[in-house]
Amino acid sequence: MTIDGHIDYISEIKELKEKKNAIILAHYYQTGDIQDIADFVGDSLALSQKAAANDADIILFAGVRFMAETAKILSPSKKVLLPDMNAGCSLADSCSEKEFKKFIKKNPGRTVITYVNTNTDIKALSDIICTSSNAVQIIESLPPDEKIIFAPDRNLGNYIMNKTGRDMVIWKGACHVHEEFSLEAILQLKEDNPEAKIIVHPECELPVRMVSDFIGSTSALLQFTKGDNSQTYIVATEPGIIHQMKRESPSKKFIPAPPRDSTCGCSECNFMKLISIEKIYRCLRDEKPEIVIDSGVIEKAGKPIRRMMEISEKLGL
Ligand code: 13P
Ligand code: SF4
Q1: What is the pLDDT of residues 33-87, one digit of tens each?
Q2: How far does the centroid of ligand 1 lie from the alpha carbon of residue 56, in Å?
Q3: Of 243, 221, 241, whose CA–CA distance to 230 is shortest?
Q4: Strand, helix or coil at 12?
Q5: How far apart are CA 289 and CA 251, in angstroms?
Q6: Going by CA atoms, what residue is nearest to atom 6 of ligand 2?
Q7: Predicted pLDDT of residue 278
Q8: For 143, phi and psi rounded to 5 degrees?
Q9: In terms of C-beta density within 10 A (0-12 exposed, 13-18 middle, 19 or more buried), how is residue 194 classed?
Q10: Mean pLDDT calculated for residue range 191-210
């Protein structure tokens, strides 16, 4: 269908989805127009759960590569598409297989827990995967004296270690988006909006976490703004989530926390924002780029992911 000679991408996508029995899973950091056409929008944990249980033949993942790979590992018989293969993740890339193997060797006898934001080779070296929604509960589900390696996010690792008091050695990786928030700019915003609550993702640095009123994964932040009675929030995570916050609480005000680098203006994840409506249309039409993973890797990386899913299900997460 065309409008004034232009392709009407939204209706074409709807038609293609129906014809091919495809679903679109979108992360909260995608742009609002993509979230609005998705069949399911969520954080990393909810998206993995949805990827593991659906009747579609094709999953188109509007997110980054490690998320689409996790979907493929959980549903190997389905075709999993990612509209742009360059949609990587600075956090996942901060942990290479070669260096991580050395780190495990240097710290023997520890259970290896890794954040889902990793490449498949790192997952294959792990005992259990976690996301920011279930990391604390997964660690607390282990015996209290169990020694742990946590990778790759140092900020999430420190946050969990302080919360649980567990014996953890932490890999020193980070997300360039969440580490870039400016404490000074956040405090200035708070001075200008004294009634505002500061809400923060645990991938942020300690000084930013210390001035927060609430810390949580993207879905926990969303839930908090729904249930809380404040009218204004300073949001220290990728601003894509504000689309859902405004949807759930239209009368409230959400102010994105600014980054340290004032020349780039906002804290969008450049990888997440590589996905566009036009790329989704082409990807569904051509059924490529497709996520292809070696069956041996699927088996190895699948075990720790399934362990996470089982623990989460038991805990009702
Ligand atoms: P969650 O979806 O677990 O909140 O993770 C945030 C993130 O950085 C995803 O890239
Ligand atoms: Fe990776 Fe950070 Fe982007 Fe999330 S926000 S995909 S952790 S680079």
Answers
A1: 999 999 999 999 899 999 999 999 999 999 999 999 999 999 999 999 999 999 9
A2: 24
A3: 221
A4: helix
A5: 40
A6: 89
A7: 96
A8: -55, 140
A9: exposed
A10: 97
Q: Which among 156, 279, 249 has a CA at the least distance from the CA of 209? A: 156
Residue 139 has pLDDT above 70, yes or no: yes
User: For the chain, what percentages of helix, strand and coil (3-state, to nearest 5) are there?
Assistant: 45, 20, 35
Quote the ligand 2 centre to 15 CA distance (angstroms). 31
Which residues form ligand 2's pocket by a CB distance below 6 Å? 64, 89-91, 117, 175-178, 238, 269, 271-272
The predicted model scores a pTM of 0.95
Cβ of 107: how many Cβ atoms within 10 Å? 14
Ligand 2 pocket test: pick from 28, 221, 238 the residue with the most ligand atoms within 8 Å of its Cβ: 238
45 alpha carbon – ligand 2 mean position (Å): 14
* Token pair in block for residue 193: 């909006």
Pocket test for ligand 2, best of 47, 64, 268 (most atoms within 8 A of CB): 64
pLDDT at 262 over 80: no
User: Which amino acid is residue 186, in one-letter code?
Assistant: I
How far apart are the C-alpha atoms of 204 and 210, rounded to whole Å?
A: 10
225 beta partners:
none
Sequence letter at residue 138:
I
Q: Whole-angstrom Cα distance, residue 132 to residue 151?
A: 12
Closest ligand 1 atom to the C-alpha of 42? Answer: 2
Chain centroid, CA 211 distance in Å: 23
Looking at the chain, list the stretches that DSSP marks H as alpha helix, in order from N- to C-terminal side. Answer: 9-20, 32-37, 44-52, 65-74, 90-93, 97-106, 120-123, 135-140, 154-164, 183-192, 206-210, 218-227, 242-248, 277-286, 295-314
- The Cα 102–Cα 95 span in angstroms is 11
Strand-pairing partners, residue 148, are: 111, 168
Residue of 175, 267, 270 to mutate, ligand 2, most atoms within 8 A of C-beta: 175
